[in-house]
């Protein structure tokens, strides 16, 4: 256990809590699933309870909910226009889910679901899947105009189309890796510096005195991680808005 | 709530991990593979992500967003309504001020007219009185002049007699004879003539 404490990777381990196996797949209810549930429960409960009084003049908590709502709403309207507002519930859910998951992960002993590539990739794939499905149902093959920018000389067109296709295909990857890598790296760094505190403290009085430095670093990193938690949720939502704009207006 | 469950879960598995995996036949997490890149956990995470995020999405779409949107709409409506109300009250106040000013101007005009009228009436009365008095004075003047001229005429008439008397007296004193009345009268007439 002592070794685990200092092991910065231990926090990302997944343990089954309720084992479930169907058709050879391990679908167990794990600590990851528990924190997905917690994320959803905390976010939903906050949004639901803070607005339950429906005050004309909002209190603090209701203001927070309204600010989040209007923040995402304005973001989507700026990026994708009023037509994009049909995706408002989707983008708002994504933003709140990622934000609350990131923030919950900052608590000691809590599992950070967005530090797992499969979770962020699942969300990114959902975004790109929505873009592709909506783009083709709305515009048919006209959606492919997305890959053919206007005003490009014909002899450059194959190259440009290739680049556009590669950039489109790399979107889910970049979207998911950005969030995953930020959360992973932040939590590893936090754990490493906190580990230094523990290791140094074990060395006696000098060690305890010396451990002040990594402790200060861990405190500063916690603040940074708080910023990153907000920033990455914001970036995820903004990019989602921009990709949805492509689905709505593929001709640029 | 989450703290306790998370803490319990964090401390418990150390002992039970091996058993759980052995009992359930899960491909044990290979120690050494980086947990986020362990594909054995992928189906479970994707399934639970789909379930939790799906429920979250539905809850937000059906319950939370209509409510928050409703709150904001109601507030915006209320604000526009209040602004309209304020604008209407301001209009009413402006109209009242305009009406008051108009009334004031009318009253002023009326007061001026009344003053002017009184002034004119007084002037006319004074003029009439002056005229009457002038007329009376003229009449009196005329009467007086008439009387003066009649007195003068009388006096002038008597002047001849006095002159004749005086002349006869003078003649009597100077000459010592008596001049006839007719001669004296003729002489006086020739002098006076």
Overview of this protein structure:
The complex is a heterodimer of chains A (252) and B (193). Chain A has 252 residues and is mainly alpha-helical. Chain A contains eight helices and four strands. The longest helix of chain A is centred in the last third of the chain and has 45 residues, at 157-201. The N and C termini of chain A lie far apart (56 Å). The model of chain A has no long low-confidence stretch (mean pLDDT 90). By secondary structure, chain B is mostly helical. Chain B has four helices and no strands. Chain B has helices at 2-11, 13-24, 42-175, 181-192. In chain B, α3 packs antiparallel against α4 (181-192). At the A-B interface, β3, β4, α2, α3 and α4 of A face α1, α2 and α3 of B.
Radius of gyration of chain A using CA atoms only: 22 Å
| SSE arrangement of chain B, N to C | HHHH
Give the overall shape of chain B: rod-shaped
Into how many domains do the coordinates of chain A divide? 1
Number of strands of chain B: 0
Cα separation of the termini of chain B: 157 Å
Quickly describe the structure.
The complex is a heterodimer of chains A (252) and B (193). Chain A has 252 residues and is mostly helical.
Tag the structure with descriptive keywords:
heterodimer, A: 252 residues, mainly alpha, two-stranded antiparallel sheet, 69% helix, globular, B: 193 residues, 4 helices, 87% helix, disordered N terminus
